[in-house]
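@channel sequence for tomorrow's demo:
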Amino acid sequence: MTVQTPAPKPAITDREDIAKRLLRSSAKASYDPLVEIDWDAPIDKERYALKPERISLYGTELWDRLSEEQRKELSRHEVASIASIGLWFETILMQMLVRHAYDRDPTTNHVQYAYTEIADECRHSVMFAKMTQKLAGRHYRPDFITHNLGRVFKAISNGPLTFAGALYVEEILDQLQREAMVDDTLDPLVQAVSRIHVVEEARHMRYAREELIRDWDDHGRISKAYSRFILGLVVYFATTRLISPEVYKSVGLDPREAAKAARRNHHHIDTKTWAARKVVATFDKAGLLAGPAKYVWRRAGLLGRPGAPAAIAR
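structure tokens (generated this afternoon):
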């Protein structure tokens, strides 16, 4: 009989050592978006803000109906919607990091890096807010249920939920922005915002990844089951709200019809699977993807379509 060897746990370093290195990196490479980005420059409406293949309606009948000008306009609103969700979750994350630091020794590198990340997230929130205003002239606030579930989540989160939730949202944004920042066909503002966010979020993801894995093993079976379930809900609502139905009004489409088409669009599902592939692998290896929670991840379109190639990168 062949016995399968369990997948090795992700390696982690000493908490104080990694925090010291992250603090050093922050001192060398941190940015003030208000200074680094030319906010007075006009949006280039001849360019897309997002690769066409990543737009939620790409490849659908509704996409075929749109003119090239409308497609570019939709790309700007979709980026604004994604940034709005990012801003919403960063606000939640800042509160959870404050709670994480509250009971810990502020003289440690670990807590001092938590404070540093909070400062980074404050700047990112301003940056995202200014970008959404420039691209779409508005903020795409999450729907009432999602907005108030955010209140609940930040109140009941434990250590694994704080860092798993942060890692998930940061990884999704990171994948999209790594692609955007090197694509010179896209709007310069989107590229500039992406570059800043990618550099600083790399540190945040390292911090969250190692703290999650370190903390996860200290929890018992019931706590782990609870964390998997709540994380599944957070992931589902954050992912399915990335593109607000309201964005479709910008190009004269019916929000309900367009949102339905996007949910069924295999190109859109494949993009979500691609964007989540790294964090899915991390969570799977750590043991966070198991039981009923896995069904929720699949419903969110993060584990791929049946028969589709895994983690398609177009």
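heads up for whoever presents: The mean pLDDT is 91.
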